[in-house]
Amino acid sequence: MEKLRLEPVSRVNGEVNIPGSKSISNRALLLATLASGETTLVNLLDSDDIRHMLASLKALGVQFSLSDDKTVCTLQGLGGPIVADKAFELFLGNAGTAMRPLCAALTLGVGEFTLTGEPRMEERPIGDLVDALRQLGADIRYLKNDGFPPLTIKATGLAGGVVEIDGSLSSQFLTALLMVAPLAKDSVTIAVKGELVSKPYIDITLDLMAKFGVKVSNDKYQRFEIAAGQRYVSPGKVLVEGDASSASYFLAAGAIGGGEVKVTGVGRLAVQGDVKFADALAAMGADIEWSDDYIIARGSKLHGIDMDMNHIPDAAMTIATAALFATGPTRMSNIYNWRIKETDRLAAMATELRKVGAIVEEGHDYIHITPPAAPNHAEIDTYNDHRMAMCFSLLAFADCGVTINDPGCTSKTFPDYFKRFANLASQN
Ligand SMILES: O=C(O)C1=C[C@@H](OP(=O)(O)O)[C@@H](O)[C@H](O)C1
Ligand SMILES: C=C(OP(=O)(O)O)C(=O)O
Q: Reaction catalysed (predicted)?
C-alpha cells in the first residue's frame, strides 16, 4: 500500500481553483441524457464517481464527447427514457450519486439492467428508494441482500400517483425519485416520511431540474408535486460549480495555516449546501471573506464549537480535523448517516483522531473531540474513503506532520488532491 508522508507546513498563502462539483456533474449528466437536445457541460469533474456515470451512459448507447482534459462534455440527449434491446450490467464503483439516480432512471424506459458496485456499495442501503419505485410499479430484484445492491431492474416505465419515501437515511433517494418523477405516466406526488437528512442536496436537484425546464412544487421538503406531461429540455450549456466539499480542505488550511487561502469556483452564489462549511469555520473563529464566486479563509485563533452538522455531512469531516487546532472541545451532532457512506465514518474518524492524541467520544449520531495539547505523528488509515485522506492532510499544519495511508483513494472525487495540497503548501 502506498503511504504519503506530509512534512510539517508552518504557513500557507495562495489560491486554489476547485474542480467541478461531483453532485452537480452526475445530476447534470443524467438529466442531459433524459433531455431533448444537445448539452455542453463545462467544468465537469474528472474523477472515479463521474467516470462510473459516463461509462454506464456510454454502455447504454448515449452519445457524448469529452475534451482532452475531460472537463467539457457535449452530450446528445435521448429526449426521454433509456430504451435497451439487450440486458446490461453496469458497475458503479462506490458512487452513490450514480447508483441511486441511475436505479431510478432506468426504471423509466424499457430493458433489463443489473447494477453492481464495489464491496462497500453492497453495504450501502438503497431499500427506501426501491420501496418508493415499487409503489410506482417498478420491478426491481435484489441479487444478494434485501435493501442493498447489486440489483436487477426489469423496466417497463413508471406509473404516477402518490408515493411515500423515507428520507431519514439519505437524501439521494429523494433526489433520484424527484429526477424521474416528470417522466412517469401520470403526475407524481411525493410524501417524505421521517426526518429528511442532508436537505441542501435537494436544492441542488431542484435547481438542475429547473435548469432543464421541469417545475416541481415543494411544500416544506415534506411534499413535492410534479405535474405529468413535463419533459426535460437541454438548456444548451451547464456550468458546473466548483465542488464545495472539496473546497473545505483548502479553506480549513487557510484558517489553520496562519496565512490566507482563496478558493475560486465556488462562493456566495453556489447552489451547494456545503458552502455553509465556511460559516462553521467562521463560528470556530476563522476570518472568512465571501464573494459571489470565491471564498477566502484567513488564519486566526480557532475555538471549538457545538453544532448540528446534518446540513453539511461531507464537509463536516473537515471540521472534525480542524477541531485538532482549536482550543476547547468540538461537538458535532446529527450525523448518523456518516455511518453508511464510504466507510463507517464515525468509527473511522474516532479511531484516527485518537491516534494523533485527541480524546474522542463517539455516539450513535455524534462525535465529541477534545484536541490534544499537541498532536503526535501517526499513520492515518483511510478506509478507502477519499474524505478521510483529505481531511487528515490538515495534520500537516501540526509540528509532527502526518502520514496518509493509501492517498490514491482521493480519486473518488479529487484525483490530484495531494498535488494541489503540496502546491499550496509550497506557497508561503
Ligand atoms: O446528493 C448528493 O449529491 C449527495 C448527498 C449526500 O448524501 P446523503 O444524502 O446520503 O447524506 C452527500 O453525502 C453525498 O456525497 C452527495
Ligand atoms: C458520501 C459521499 O459519496 P456518495 O456520493 O457516494 O454518497 C461523499 O462523497 O462523501
A: 3-phosphoshikimate + phosphoenolpyruvate = 5-O-(1-carboxyvinyl)-3-phosphoshikimate + phosphate
Q: Is the CB of 397 under 6 A from ligand 1?
A: no
Is any ligand 2 atom within 6 A of the Cβ of residue 95?
Answer: yes
DSSP per residue over 36-98, as a string?
A: BSEEEEES---SHHHHHHHHHHHHTT--EEE-TTS-EEEEE--SS--B-SS-EEEE-TT-HHH
Q: Which atom of ligand 1 is nearest to the CA of 173?
A: 9
Instruction: Tell me: ipTM over 0.85.
Output: yes
Among 26, 97, 343, residue to substitute to test ligand 2 (most atoms within 8 Å of Cβ): 97
Q: From CA 146, how far away is CA 97, in angstroms rounded? A: 20
DSSP string, 171-190: THHHHHHHHHGGGSSS-EEE
Pocket test for ligand 2, best of 22, 24, 27, 335 (most atoms within 8 A of CB): 22
Q: How far apart are CA 293 and CA 295, in angstroms?
A: 7
CB 158 within 8 A of CB 133: yes
Q: Identify the residue whose C-alpha is closest to ligand 2 atom 2.
A: 341
Answer yes or no: is the C-beta of 382 below 6 A from any ligand 1 atom.
no
Query: How remote is the CA of residue 86 from the centroid of ligand 1, in Å?
Result: 31
Spacing, Cα 212 to ligand 1 middle (Å): 21
Grid cell, residue 6, equals 506530509
> How many separate helices (H) and strands (E) can be counted in the chain?
12, 25
The predicted-structure confidence for 399-428, as pLDDT tens digits, reads as follows 999 999 999 999 999 999 999 999 998 876
For 122-142, b where at least 16 C-beta lie within 10 A, e where not — what string? eebbbbbbbbbbebbebebee
List active site positions.
314
If you count them, how many residues does the chain have?
428
**Conformation bin of residue 203: beta by default, left when phi > 0, alpha when psi is -120 to 50:** alpha
pLDDT digits (tens, 9 = 90+) for 201-234: 999 999 999 999 999 999 999 999 999 999 999 9
Query: Is residue 152 packed enough to be buried (19+ CB in 10 Å), middle (13-18) or exposed (0-12)?
Result: middle
Q: Where are the alpha helices (DSSP H) in 107-198?
A: 127-135, 172-180
Closest C-alpha residue for ligand 2 atom 4: 96
Ligand nearest 25 Cα, by number?
1
